[in-house]
Specification:
Elements (H helix, E strand, L loop, with lengths): L1 H23 L5 H27 L1 H8 L5 H23 L6 H25 L4 H4 L2 H18 L1
Helix pairs in contact: 1-2, 2-3, 2-4, 2-7, 5-7
Length: about 150
């Protein structure tokens, strides 16, 4: 359950950083400041945390999800690192202006993972904490980014 809390703390921290950015640069607007914060902090942290978990703590992560560790976890870890680096770049360097392709990839990745976790719970009876509680960030992060993008555009 601890690693799920890390995602939620990161999510809340992204909103707080967005609020600070609003105080520093109010002319950019609430949605843009929060989008940048969610990209740099939220997506960046998500990618790094997933990378470390799936590549260096594969057995423990797989067990918490109710799966058996395998080579696919390393692939998940590496793509997560790419998403995280892209989030930091998009939020800090690009100012969130060119983030749509990244958000599209992240939405498909996380919503697909969320649907898979729901399927595992319902069809396979996998009620492990790592399989069930991760569903919240799997849908919350994409919905937040899509809403902020909508507000910015």
């Amino acid at each position: 359950m601890g690693f799920i809390m890390v995602y939620l703390v990161s999510y809340i921290l992204s909103w707080l950083v967005g609020g600070v950015l609003c105080l520093l640069w109010p002319d950019r607007g609430f949605a843009m400041n929060c989008l940048q914060a969610h990209l740099a902090c939220g997506v960046g942290f998500f990618g790094l945390f997933n990378f470390v978990g799936h590549c260096f703590f594969s057995e423990r992560v797989a067990k918490s999800i109710g799966w058996v560790s395998n080579g696919f976890q390393k692939e998940i870890g590496v793509i997560s690192l790419g998403i995280g680096v892209s989030g930091v770049y998009s939020g800090l360097v690009d100012g969130g202006r060119g983030c749509l392709p990244l958000v599209i990839v992240l939405v498909f990745f996380l919503v697909g993972a969320g649907v898979n976790h729901i399927r595992e719970d319902l069809k396979e009876g996998n009620h492990k904490v790592g399989n069930v509680l991760i569903i919240l960030p799997d849908f919350l992060i994409p919905l937040t980014l899509l809403a902020l993008l909508f507000l910015v555009r």
